[in-house]
Every structure is written in structure tokens, then in C-alpha cells.
Automatic annotation (TrEMBL):
It comes from Pseudomonas laurylsulfatiphila. It comes from the Bacteria. SUPFAM superfamilies: Winged helix' DNA-binding domain (SSF46785). Residues 237-247 have a biased composition (Low complexity). This is Transcriptional regulator.
Amino acid sequence: MSAEQHDMGVSQVAAAIAEPARTKILCSLMDGHARTSTELAAVAEVSASTASAHLARLKELALVRLHVQGRHRYYSLADKRVAQALEALMVIGQNPAPRFQPRTPDRLQFARTCYDHMAGTLAVLLHDRMLEAGWLEETDEQAYRLSDSGSAMFQGLGIEVQDLSTLRRRFACPCLDWSMRRPHLGGSLGAALLQTALKRQWVTQDLDSRALALTALGRREMGVRFGVELPTETEGSRSQSAAARGALLNPNQ
């Protein structure tokens, strides 16, 4: 691809994402779920015909993928790279005031999906704990490798680390969290950790949003397995988010 073609491709994608209705459609698909055009029209607050036109454009630019099952047609993000690009744009789009005050709804800020891995305050706390414990080790390529103790920890969760390293995607990498502006764990290792958390019912996922809810079992496991201390639940996810966010934004308190 020539430089001119590359520039044209970037401008076309940027223009497609810049349209507010398309932005809403793409962001609603960041939870990894596929949705119908009717559902996406409601999300974007446009008519069904307008949503169809938007989806056709997004599909043309390989930002969404169409899935046909019998008479039903569903749309999802084309792949994880689209989610990563959206997450990065969300970071850039935040007001860069020195004293950052997130405006993300509390439940989404505390824990949510970032395509196929975990994001939010809980994910950032886990990421920081893994580095602190020496389970994750930084490399020169903006990526992580597992130490021997880290491999043993993930193997203890039933995660086949060797299998993950053979997949055609990054094994483990920092993914900048748009609400916390701190990294959480991405890559195939981050995806495997989320699936383990869901399977073991440490977290439950909303059907109609990206929000994840931490269960009582999950709260205990965060402390026992990872050494992550969370505030006592007094007002549900709101108190979890506020207290944990305070610990991150004011680490010396």
C-alpha cells in the first residue's frame, strides 16, 4: 500500500468513526456481543433505515462484521483491533485536566469488558498487583512475559499459558484504560483471565452493556489469589468504584 493510499484509508476510517451515531454503534459493540440493526438503531437513536446505512458503511471499511443465522442478521466489531482503536480514542477524547475526574458511570468504571478482556478500576488493580508481585515482567516491545511464579499462578487458575503463546495475537500487553488512564492487561492472557473470572463466577456480565459485576465469591478470590484489597461493599458497585478509584488516584493516602 502506498503512502497516499494509507493516508486515504486513515481519513476514511476517521470520518466514519467521527459520525456520532456510528460512534454509538461501535462503542455498544465493544462488549463483544453481536446485535441486530434494530437494536443498534435504538442505541444510536436513529431510524432503522439510517442505522442500516451506517452499518453498511462500517462494514465496507471493515469496522464491523455481519453474521447471518437463518433469517437473522447480527453485527459485531470486526476484530479486537477496532476495540483497541476505540479505547485509545476514548483516552484522547477525555478532558486532559491535571486533576482528572472520570465521568464514566460508576458500574462501568469499576469493571467492564474491553472487547474480550477486563477493563475498569478492578482490572487496573489486578494489572498493578501482577507487576508488583513479579508475575508479569515488562519487555522492550510494550509487552509482558510471565515469570516462573506468574506462569505457576495462571496455571493454577486452569489457564494453559503455553497454548496462549501459540495464538496469532499478542500474548500479554498493557492496554490503556480510558476511564482510569492507567493500563490494564490485554492480549490473549487478559482474555483468558476474563473467561476464567466469568466461568468461576467471580464476575457476571450484563446482557445489555459492557458492565461487569463483582460477586461475593469474586471479592474473596481477589484477596486470596491475587492479594487485591477492595473496600467493604456498603452501597454496591458505587462504593466499590469510589473507594477503589480514590486509592488509585491518591496512592499515598
